[in-house]
Amino acid sequence: MFSELLTTLINNTLSKGLWNFSAELCLSGTIVVMLLMRLLSADRLLPTFIVGLIGAAAAGGCSFAQFADLIAANDTVSYSFFGGMLRQDLFSVFFRIFLTLFLILTIALTVLTGIPDNEDAPDFYSLLFGATIGMMLMASANNLLMLFLGVEMASVPSYVMVGFLKGRKASSEASLKYVVYGAGAAGVMLYGISLVAGVLGTGDMAALAEQLRVVAHGTAGLDNPEVLTVALGVMLVMVGLAFKLSLVPFHFWCPDAFEGASAEVAGFLSVASKAGAFGLLVRFCVGLSGVPETADLMTAFGVGLGVIAIVTTTYGNLAAYTQKNLKRLLAYSTIAHAGYMLMAVAAMLVMLNSDQAAGLGKAINYSIGGLLYYLAVYMFMNLGAFAVIALVRNYTFNEDIDSFKGLISQSPALCITMLVCIFSLIGIPPFGGFFAKLMIFASVYQAAQIHWAMYVVLAAGAINTIFSLFYYVRILKAMFLEERPADVKPVPLPAMEGYYVVVLAVMVALLGFLPQLVNGLSSIANEAGHAVLLVIGG
Amino acid sequence: MVGETLQKLLMTAWLLPLLGFVVEIFFGFWSKNPRHSKAAAWTAVGCIGAGFLCSLTALVMWGTASNAFDDGDAEGWMSQQADINHARHPHHEADSSEGAPPHEHEGADHDAEHHGSSEAGADHILTAVATEDDGGPKLERGQTVYSGTIYTLGVFGSLELTLDYYIDSLTLVMFTMVTLIATCIHLFAIGYMSDELTDEYVDHFAHKADGSHVHRPGRFYRFFAFLSLFCFAMLGLVLAGNIFQVFIFWELVGICSFLLIGFYTERKTASDAANKAFIMNRIGDFGFLIGLMVLWTYFGTFRFGDTMVDNEVVDQGLFSMVHRAEDGNFDRDELTGDVLITGTDGHVLTNEDGSNRQIPYYLLVVVGLGIFAGCVGKSAQFPLQTWLPDAMEGPTPVSALVHSATMVAAGVYLAGRFFPMFVQEVLLTIAYTGCITLFLAATIAMVATDIKKVLAYSTISQLGYMMLGIGVFGWAAGLFHLITHAFFKSLMFLCSGSVIHGCHHEQEMPKMGGLLKKMPITAITMLIGVIAISGLAIPGVIAFSGYHSKDAIVASALAFKNANSAHFLLFFIPLLTAGITAFYMFRLWFYTFWGAPRDQHVHDHAHESPWIMTAPLLILSVFAAFCAVGGDHGYLYLLLTGDEPAHLEAGVTAVGDGITLPAIQDIVDEHTTAGTWALVAAVSGTLIAYILYGTNFVNVEEMKRQLAGVHGFLTNKWHFDELYDALFMRPAHKVAAFCAWFDGAVFDRILHGAAKATVVVSKWDRVFDENVVDGFVNLIASATQSVGTSLKVVQTGRLRQYVMFIVLGVVALFAVMFTTFPG
Predict the structure, then answer these.
(1) Residue among B81, B93, B91 at smallest CA distance from B140
(2) How close B795 comes to chain A (CA, Å)?
(3) pTM for the full model?
(4) Fewer Cβ atoms within 10 A, N terminus or C terminus of chain A?
(5) Nearest residue to B651 (alpha-carbon basis) of B562, B569, B574
């Protein structure tokens, strides 16, 4: 009996598990190689970033192969592996590709901006890779244990990376704040996990809803103590995720950490860490949904997320107004965008738990697809903005808006990139950001047919788009309309760096201009959305 | 297989000049020394020369494959054709009534295995030739037309605009002729245009406002770029497989002509002439467009031939959509008289509602007249002939290539190409137009003194002959004359160019004379051209090309006159004009090369041109003399007529009291008579010219005074320019002046009023905008700004508070959950 189990386990691991985990293994292997090279001083011969790029490319290749496998299969596939710890479906693979691509872009940026220096490179890239592995785990987690492990795996390297500029006091302080805040949030989340797992008797996220039905005995209101306990547990887990997503009121770390960290790290955290956390959130929410008894509760949960989304977006946008430091400004912008994306999750929850869920299959897919599309566009536009900041910083040693004044006269390439990225961040057509926002708002509108509160969410989203105009355009105004002050150091027209940011800007534009790309990506995203819902038979 | 190879060869010949054009037009960009280098010219020569080799290969290949060279026995192939056809269609004979002319043209051919327009079909015929060669009746000539699509430009609903090819004997002969002449003229132009090889060209004919000459950089490479573009367009026109494509290249040669006539753009006369040529052509093209519209509306396609894939017709062409009955007339609806539109198998096509597809007869006339209107413009026929003499403002190689040999002949070519669609009324119009033109132009040529103008009017006159030939059902004669004329006329233009070059841009013949000794090669080659165009010959001994082709036209005209005695003028005027032609051509030669020098200054400085200019003269003179050797048994004629329209064979019987079109045999019967008459006319013309200009017997100036009225009328070109000026220009100016007044007095006033009103409204709008709209926006901005500032307070940066906020946040969430979530 046991040996049979063991054989099955080994077989499954060898036949499927290892292949599914190959991207993560590539990254892990790369970390080992990088550290070994450091030990053997081989990093003087072969720059570490090249090893990193090769490793990331290998991981990307593996992910693409998996992607091809899944696309080639006739049915949408979803299954757990490694003893139910992780889940393999198009959703996981989408995130793997997304994260490896982003990793490559980040490495390229760090090479161009020269942070870290040769000495620190193995350390820095090891941390970067470690965090990426954590985020991949988050996106494919199938167990509450993996949920915690993934979050921590992503967080711990991030703490160090924020404080990586060792000489800077602000950097160390930011790192410390991030660590303490993160530890607090992790504690709360772990408590929540123990409550949920304790009451429901399982850590398998796919089985949460089913177990909840069993435990609830037909009365699924808060007056049922078991349900109440689970609700508290879910709430506490949400706190942990809200920390990663920097949702109000668990966002306090974000502006301080971003201001302290270098722009490259801030760019990485603002996109990758958020992406992983959203992947996890979607899986967690899907795992809890789909049981008629708890439908009301989950709808309320969805609306609650919608309210948090409103608060987060509004807070982020308004707080960005008075910022002078660009990284800080973009930190608030990040908070606001997390709010927009959370609206998609809220819409998904509301639709998934309505009694018409069966008929809404497509719409639910679209809500997740919209989220993924938003993430993809966000990757390019946010990284583009942070890259411009990092490049300008290298010349002016300053990250304030003032250092951008009149930049158009000196390096138009950077300014045009910034313009495209910012227009896309605002959501002005025809750039990618517009379509991403449109998809999310469309899902919210669909959800509003089921619960009126989503109309409020929709309205808030629309109004916030206008709010965001003011502070974004302030950057553009400084760059394009104001005179370059005499005391600011000049920024020469960049060569290689220029191509890099222009490529990002072109991608942002193409994700809006090019119908084939928009349709192709969104249909893949919708497929991934479909895949993640298979857990509950959606 | 043959078709594919032919297509590839001709496509190469067609596209090479385009490549050349691209290279040459950017020559200034590529070359370090563009104003002094001849590389552009040699590129052009290389392209067109290679094109000539391709065309020649294709022609020989086609000729061999279709046995076109095989003249059969002494009777001439034409009389034999009927037998051949019978041999080739034995079962036709079996089931059709005796002596029925077989429908020989592609598409009209009922039998799948005898389709001529497909490669497969063609190959089949060729195979038949091979297998039946030794046994049974001998097959001499096969009909081989290849058509298909090269590229689809666009699809608009059911309208498909494509680039097609249509390769038959006419295409191939035209290709070879155009590329050969163009190569010679390119070579000649290298010498002729060499004074453009400078950074500062002084144009003695262009004056600035202060009277000084215009100085400009030389435009040597640009000239050759235009020439290459023209060659591309001209070859495209000939290769075109649908009438719309013809129109495209038609306009393209038009623009090239415009660019080349106006090459010396600083000269007002040149730019005016370019405009005139372009505008006159637009008038004709208007008719062309109407024809196209009618064609599209009723036939739904522009293609000439059927496009075949694997022996199946995939796209039916125009030529097989109208079917001719045995008497040569179109199949018509018995009740309405409309012409029926048929499928490839000869059965009438039906509309969706089951009724027969048909086109009213008068609209078929409109189509023919419309297309012909385009030809009238392009070929400078009456009444649009006035642009061609003015077009002589272009450099002489251009006159030789564009305005005598090729482009102006395109009108005749199109009339020949579109011949199967023409009905009797259209043909009669063509014949009379040609007849009027040939006489009119010849009379003007008698008194012109500018050497190029004489040649220009002669060109118009000869084009009139060609049109006449086509109009009187002498399809082969008209096109035969097109080819021979191209050779001798381009030769004569180049000779005149050589004279002009040698005399330092003196074009007035009264200042020349006695140049024979100074420029012997030019004079002799010119004489060959003159003899050729005059149609002089010693029958049975030697005859130059013009004799054969003009003879053929006159014979056709005579046969036509015999069949329709009311139209006797169509025979007598060309006959008379044959004499006039000989007169004015010899007048030109005597004036220029004979006798004593009239202007010693010009004569002293005259010199023979360099070899690069005389070599083309020699080449062309050989062709001018001997290209038509053998007449209608010669290679050229047999090649040209290999694919002539099927209904020529038996002629067309008159409907009611309409026009009868003579059968080929009728024309052949008149050959000797017509030849004799034409020769008599030519010899008389020559003699008169010799007496007047070759000797001193008659005082020409005195004669001029005696006939001052006629002479003035002719030198003023029959007052056509004045007539058009009074008829069109002045009324147009009047209308334009009125429009200008109306525009200023009425429209502008309304516009100004509207503008003022807009300004007033805008001012109010501005007040509203600044106070209300901006106020609202600023209110929002300042409100959000203040909220933002207050939010800043929370973000203290103190870690202890932050951790406190986690706790507070969790508690607050709990509270919210307990109060709001459903119990």
Answers:
(1) B81
(2) 7
(3) 0.59
(4) N
(5) B562
B609 & B734 share domain: no
Note whether B548 and B664 are same-domain residues: yes
Tell which residue, B544, B418, B411, B554, has the closest CA to residue B477: B554
Closest CB to B789 among A232, A239, A322 = A322
Cα(B778)–Cα(B757) distance, rounded to whole angstroms? 30
B587 and B527 assigned to the same domain: yes
Are B588 and B603 in a shared domain? Answer: yes
User: Is B507:B523 a contact under the CB 8 Å cutoff?
Assistant: no
CA B623/CA B629 separation, integer angstroms: 10
The answer to whether the bond into B383 is cis (omega within 30° of 0) is: yes
Strands A78-81 and A86-89: antiparallel
Distances in Å between the Cα of B13 and the Cα atoms of A43, B47, B49, B230 are 62, 8, 9, 13
Q: Which residue of A has its CA nearest to B816?
A: A304
Same domain, B661 and B532: yes
Task: Decide which of B674, B691, B715 is a domain's last residue.
Answer: B715
Domain finish residue from B697, B715, B733 = B715
Residues in chain A: 538
In angstroms, what is the C-alpha Rg of chain A? 23
Question: Is A431 part of the contact surface with chain B (CB cutoff 8 Å)?
Answer: no
Which of B778, B817, B818, B819 has the most A C-beta neighbours within 10 Å, making it the best mutation to test the interface with A?
B817
Of the candidates B455, B434, B418, the residue with the CA atom closest to the CA atom of residue B380: B434
Nearest chain B Cα distance for residue A231, angstroms:
9
In a domain, B447, yes or no: yes
Angle between helices A515-532 and A496-513 (to 10 degrees): 80
| Closest of B359, B401, B374 to residue B177, by C-alpha | B401
pLDDT tens-digit map of A493-503:
777 888 899 99
**Do B452 and B548 fall into the same domain?**
yes
Enclosing domain of residue B777: 721-817
Q: How far apart are CA B534 and CA B18, in angstroms?
A: 37
Neighbours of B669 (CB within 10 A): 16
Residue B809: which of A231, A250, A297 has the nearest Cβ?
Answer: A250
Is B108 domain-assigned? no
Placement of tokens 């010849």 in the chain: B442
B571 touches B561 (CB < 8 A):
yes
Interface contact flag, A239 B810, Cβ < 8 Å: yes
Helices (H) and strands (E) in chain A, counts: 21, 2
Nearest to B791 among A223, A296, A319 (CB): A319
Write out the two tokens for A480.
């394009």
Q: Report the run of H or E that residue B293 belongs to, with start and end.
A: helix B268-299
The answer to whether residue B272 sits within a structural domain is: no
Q: Are residues B709 and B726 in the same domain?
A: no
Q: Sort B742 into a burial class: Cβ within 10 Å, 0-12 / 13-18 / 19+.
A: exposed
Q: Give this complex's ipTM.
A: 0.84
- Give B822's contacts in chain A (Cβ within 8 Å): 221-222, 296-297, 300
Same domain, B452 and B542: yes
A315 at the B interface (CB within 8 A)? yes
Domain parsing of chain A, residue ranges = 289-538
Rounded average pLDDT per 10-residue block, chain B, 823 residues: 83 91 85 82 91 91 72 40 40 39 39 38 36 36 72 82 88 91 91 85 83 85 91 92 91 92 88 90 91 89 81 80 82 82 80 82 91 91 88 88 87 91 89 92 89 91 92 90 91 90 83 84 90 84 85 90 87 91 90 83 83 89 86 82 81 78 84 88 90 79 81 82 85 91 89 93 90 85 80 76 86 86 71
Q: To the nearest whole angstrom, how far is the Cα of B793 from the nearest Cα of chain A?
A: 10
Per the domain annotation, does B766 fall within a domain?
Answer: yes
pLDDT confidence of residue A271: 93
